[in-house]
Write a structure and sequence with these properties.
The protein is about 45% helix and about 15% strand. With about 150 residues, it is an alpha+beta fold. β2 and β3 form a beta hairpin. It starts with a strand and ends with a strand.
C-alpha cells in the first residue's frame, strides 16, 4: 500500500492512501509541530504490526466515531498520543516513563493497553526519528512516500 504525505502551507498536511482497487483516499492531517499525527500512527502500526487508524483507512473500514474503535485500535490511539507528547518535549523521555504514561492514558480512557515492553517503545521511537529526518527537509507542497503491508 502506498501512503503519500504532503507538507501543507497552512494548518494541515495531507495523507493520500493509494489502494489497488479503489480511488485514492485523501485525509487532512492537522499540523502538530512534529511529524503529522497520521505519520505517528504509521510508525506505531508499522513497527508493532498493529491495527489502528492508518490500517483501518487502508482497509476502508474507519468507524464513524472514536467510540466505535476496537480494543487494539484504541490502544494504538493512546500510544500515538504518548509518542506525540514525547515529540513535543524533544523525543527524550525514557522508555519506562513512556510505558508508565501509556498506562495512565489507557486507564484514564478506560482502554485496554497493548502488551508492550521497553524494546517496543525504542523500536517505534527509532522509526519516528527516521521519519522525522525525512520529513523535516521537505518543503511545502512536496511529499514523502511510504509503503505499508496490511
Amino acid at each position: 500500500m502506498k501512503l503519500i504525505f504532503t507538507k501543507g502551507a497552512d494548518k494541515y498536511d495531507q495523507l493520500v492512501i493509494h489502494r489497488d482497487d479503489t480511488s485514492p483516499q485523501i485525509i487532512d492531517c492537522p499540523k502538530q509541530g512534529i511529524i503529522p499525527h497520521d505519520m505517528v500512527h504509521y510508525a506505531v502500526e508499522n513497527t508493532l504490526n498493529k491495527r489502528g487508524f492508518v490500517v483501518q483507512a487502508i482497509e476502508n473500514e474507519l468507524p464513524d466515531s472514536l467510540t466505535e474503535y476496537d480494543d487494539e485500535s484504541n490502544g494504538v490511539e493512546r500510544l500515538v498520543e504518548v509518542f506525540q507528547a514525547d515529540g513535543w518535549s524533544g523525543w527524550s523521555s525514557e522508555p519506562a516513563t513512556l510505558l508508565d504514561l501509556y498506562q495512565v492514558t489507557c486507564n484514564a480512557r478506560r482502554c485496554e493497553p497493548l502488551n508492550l515492553q521497553e524494546h517496543d517503545i525504542e523500536a517505534v521511537r527509532q522509526n519516528i526519528l527516521q521519519l522525522t529526518q525525512l520529513w523535516q527537509p521537505i518543503a511545502v507542497g512536496e511529499s514523502l512516500e511510504l509503503t505499508m503491508e496490511t
